[in-house]
Amino acid sequence: MLPDMGIKLDLRFATQVLCIKSMALITxxxxxxxxxxxxxxxxxxxxxFINDLHEAMLAGKGKTVLRxxxxxxxxxxxxxxxxxxxxxxxxxxxxxAEHKAIHDAFVAQVLDLQRRVQADEIGVSREVLxxxxxxxVNHIKVTDQDYVxxxxxxxxx
Length: 157
Fold this sequence. Notes:
The chain has helices at residues 11-22, 37-58, 62-90, 96-118, 126-143, 148-153. It is an all-alpha fold. The longest helix has 29 residues, at 62-90. The termini are far apart.
């Protein structure tokens, strides 16, 4: 038994803080799956990158993790977009050029973000994370959904 020192602990608050610190910024679930195994697996990896940055920021290690994670994100983004674009082009998706232009614009944004981080112009912030999160979730739920029925009709699973 601890002596009464006039300090009262509110364990409900401590539990809430622990839960907040371990919460993912993006929860991977069916609402952000497109239903194509390869693409969903790659999207889930992208969600993991954003969640890693979020957790590092909450732990006060954002700057340490940011450069490494951004470099991995840039490489992975290029790989994922190339895979997605190959599927569209191989099967003759009519919206290929427009979708590729959206990908190219995002790669340019991520490269600019990487450049600004390397120049110490910016660090991990809620704004940066929310921008990445919003772009990814919107891209999956809206833009990627445009090609899914087409690719499924071609037998892509």
